[in-house]
Predict the 3D structure of the following.
Amino acid sequence: MRFRDYVRDRLWFYCIAALSFGLILLFLSAYRVSSQLAAFITGIFFIFILSEELLGFMRKRKFYSDLLHKLDGMDKKYLIHEMITKPDFLEGKITYEAMYEAYKSMCENVAGYKRSSADFREFIELWVHEVKLPVASLQLMAHNHSDKLGEKFLEQLRRIDGYTDQVLYYARSENAEKDYIIKEVSIKRIVANTALKKREDIQIADASIETEGLDVNVMTDGKWLEFMLGQFIANSLKYVVEGRDTVMRITAEEFPDRVLLHFRDNGIGIPEKDLPRVFDKSFTGENGRLYAKSTGMGLYIVKSLCERLGHSVSVASQQGSYTEFTIAFAKNDFYKM
């Protein structure tokens, strides 16, 4: 808050004061008051105006400068009401009360949206668990028919099951901290469990998985990691090269400060222009439009889960040759008791 801005805002007051002082001088002159007394009255008047304005400026400047300074340094600016003290002048008190009412209303609205979001998430999770029952029953019925039609039914049911899993993990990814258990797990065991769950899809695609150096333990949540690997496998089976044997290679590297888990396939690859956005929400890219229908949510969920678990995920690819995803697990004692 600058003094010249304050003076400019108070021009109306100075105009009224000047007019009033002019009338005073006119009356003093009419009553033939001595020039010495008129000068004395003039001095008192100007000292009063100057003192009042300086004091008013200092009081307001302290409050508004503190307000703007704290507001500029805050990430959650709606909490500014909690960071300032109530001023002792009328305009500041009105501003303070207005901010309090706005903050109170905002908190009530946010609480309502949170309750609504939590209720919707609980409904989605319940719905996913319920819908899995008829899907499992249909899969069992399709298994009893070993003809080609039964295999087609099974393939579509597995796709439905995969998409319902995506919905469930997406709903939980916003509050993953309430649903994960960080402990030391074996990468070899996680890969084996994931491959077992995806075995029918892998067999139908006539694909194979090669592994190397998986005898490594990392600190993570095994269930979430299985889901992430499952997304990598599903993408690899979706974007294959016709006439080329589909091979997925899963390897691990251990370093003093981290463990890197690599998942590499020999599919169609990702165009270079799409690489920076593959983890964006709902991004399907060129491959998703040309080769297979895609929601663009799988890799976004993987990225979200990695961030919440304290891991990092990256991608490298060459179109027509390969795609490689890498998950980095930090090695520290944060989760160890």
User: Anything to note?
Assistant: DSSP finds ten helices and seven strands in the chain. The first helix runs from residue 3 to 9. The chain has a mean pLDDT of 83. The radius of gyration is 35 Å.
